[in-house]
User: What shape does this take?
Amino acid sequence: MATERIYNFAAGPAVLPVPALEEAQRDLLALPGVGMSVLEISHRSKTFEAIIGECEANVRKLGRIPEDYHVLFLPGGATLQFSMVPMNLLPAGAWADYIVTGTWSDKAVKEATKVGAVNVAFTNKAENFVRVPKREEIKLTPGAAYIHIATNETIQGVEFHKLPDFGDAVVVADTSSHMFSRPLEVAKYGVLYAGAQKNLGPAGVALVIIRDDLVKKAAQNRAYAGLPVMLQYGTHVQEKSLYNTPPAFAIYVMNLAMKWLIGIGGLEAIEKINERKAGKLYAEIDRTGYYKGHAAKDSRSRMNVTFRLPKEELEEKFIKEAKAAGMDGLKGHRSVGGLRASIYNAFPEAGVDTLVAFMKEFEKKNG
Ligand code: PMP
Assistant: This one.
C-alpha cells in the first residue's frame, strides 16, 4: 500500500518531523538494548526515567531555561492549564488580569472566572480578534496575581511578535501554537504552557514551565490543600511529572522532536525558516487582493496563516481541489471561516511552495 506523505496543514494534532517518526517507527517493537516497546515499559523503569530526563534536558537546552524554573509534562492538554493556573495562582481575595485576543484566551477567561476574580484587561472580540493590542491598550490592574496572555491565537492566526513590557508582573502565557517556533526569554514569564500537539509532539501531554517561587507560593494558599492532588503544581514538581502514569509515548516522541529541533540548529535556526515560510504565504496573499488575510498585518501569525477568498463557494472549491492535489487540513475554523494554513516547525518549506503555486493557479482559473 502507498504510504506517501501529503502536506498536512492541520492546526493540531499536526505534522511531526519525519526523522522523529522514523526513529519511533524503527524502535517501536523494541527499544535498542531493552527488548520491549516504549509502549510497554514501566514508567518507573530506568529506561523511561532516562527518556523523560532527556526530554526535559532537551527542552531546557532549546529554551535556555533558567535553573529556577521547573519543566513539567502534564496530562489534560493546554485546556487543563486554563483551570490549574487560577486554582494554584489565584487565591481568594486576589484577582488576575486576562488579555483576550482570540478563542483560546477567551476560553481561559471563562475557566478562570469559575475559580476567582478576573479583570479583562483587553478584548477585541467585537472586532473579531483581528489583531493583538498595543501595550497602551492593555488596562492592567496593579497588584493582580498574574497577567494571562495567549501569545499565538491558533484559530484567528494572530501572534504577539514580542511580549509587551509588563515590568515585574507575573506573566502566564499560553504558547501552545508557537512554542519553540522562535527564541524566547523564559525569565520574562512566571508560567509558560503549551499543548504538545502543534509544535512539540503528539497529543496527550502539555509542556508546563513554571518558576519555583510560584509553586511555593501556591502551596501557601489556604485552598491549596483542598485541591485534587493531580491539580496541584507541587505534586508534579515533587514527583518530576511521574506522580501517576504519564503519557509515556507522547513524551518519548516529543523528545525525538526536540532532538530534531536541536539538530537543525535550535530556535534561532527555526525562526529563520519559519519567517521565510510565513513570508512566502503572506506575500502571495497580498499579491493581488484576490486573497484576504484575516489578521492585521502587524499581528500576523507565522504559524497559523488565516485567509479568505472572495466567496464561500470558492473557498469550498479551493479546499476540495487542494486536497486532491495532496494538501490537507486547510479548512479554517468555523468561527473565522475561510482557510487556515498551519505551518508549524515540522511543516516542510516545499509544502508552502506547493500551496503558493496552487494559490496562483487557482486565482488564474477562478479569479
Ligand atoms: N490554547 C491554544 C492556543 C490552542 O491552540 C489550543 C488547542 N487548539 C488550546 C489552548 C487547547 O489545547 P488542548 O487541546 O491541548 O487542551
User: Anything to note?
Assistant: The chain is about 40% helix and 15% strand. The domain at 266-366 is CATH 3.90.1150.10 (Aspartate Aminotransferase, domain 1).
